[in-house]
Predict the structure.
Amino acid sequence: MKKTLLTATTIATVALSGCATQSINTFQPFQAKNLNGLISSGHLEQKKDTFFVINDSSSSTSKTYLGSGFPGQSNPTKLSIEKELLNRMNKTIPNITLSSGLRSFGYGPCLDWGYTKINQPVQNYSTSSFDSAIKTLECSSGGTPVASAFTAANDDLASATGNIGVILFSDGHNYDTSPIPAIQTLKSTFGDKLCVYTVWVGNENEKMGQAVLAGLSSVSGCGFSTTASEISSSDGMANFVTKVFFDHKTPSIGDRDGDGVLDDKDKCPNTPKGAIVDRDGCWAFHGVLFDFDKSTIKAGYEKLFDNAILVLESNPSLTAEIQGHTDSKGAESYNQSLSESRAAAVKQHLVNNGISASRLTTVGFGESQPVASNDTEAGRAHNRRVSFKRTDM
């Protein structure tokens, strides 16, 4: 289907003709490979902080996928394969601190009658939240305006931090307009921080699409292209996740607290047993962010809270200070009170989940300890946070 200007009659025809095709998933259970040990041993070092998926939801993905790698699935559509690969990637991503987002492209009812749709804005990544985003890819319809998706990604990624991986899942078939100029614009905006990766989900008679995707990944200068069959297995997906998110390292320095960050880079050398840590070796609980002028804990932090509870239960002598912070908007005295409320909210959440209140103290620092610039919205968002400090040592 080529993109055309649709009259009201044409739109009605599309809606009534069933151009939107539902995606049905009945795949065999997937056993993801556990990469956490390689991180703990220092053999893998995180290199991406944000990943953003652009998914092909055009009508061509409603056709049957005829490639290999998915035994037991009868006549799957290409959209079903894309969703299954996203599920397998989601299960394989190890316990690291990330942000994620998802956008799709096509046209018609599946895209809310737009050429591209944001299915999940960039936010703190968790397995459950990204699984919910995948589920929004309900059907496929319309042409293939992939350039529109890459253009929109420029704004989507405005709040993204650190190094960014943009991952395109597509058959590369009958693109309306080349997305290369849009990718070049992304590169000019984010520079070496951004790489583009492509996954070809196509059939033998669409081999030209594979070449198109390979060309798109090369535009960024640091990405690569692969195929659905190559990453369908546990080992194949683990290799893909490793190449996108990590650098291979040969550890030569010790890791005394066993948190996976070598001692020469560990800014928190006494990490409690079992804690998820960030790139500096610090308890990743410092990444809980709050909306402006709010002390309500948002959804999306389940993994971090589950880990905090596990750590506290596994280390019964451990005590912690919960530290609240704000951005610089508003009066200093008000921000001091707000930071205390945020710390108290986190403490109460842990107490409600079985942690003794006597092991937790709270303190508010107001706006006095920013970790990012208060001159931008993205910086202020990172300053509206709660962190943990171990107090039993």
Remarks:
- Residues 214 and 225 are 5 Å apart (CA to CA).
- The chain has eleven helices and 14 strands.
- Residues 332-352 form the longest helix (21 residues).
- The domain at 284-390 is CATH 3.30.1330.60 (60s Ribosomal Protein L30; Chain: A;).
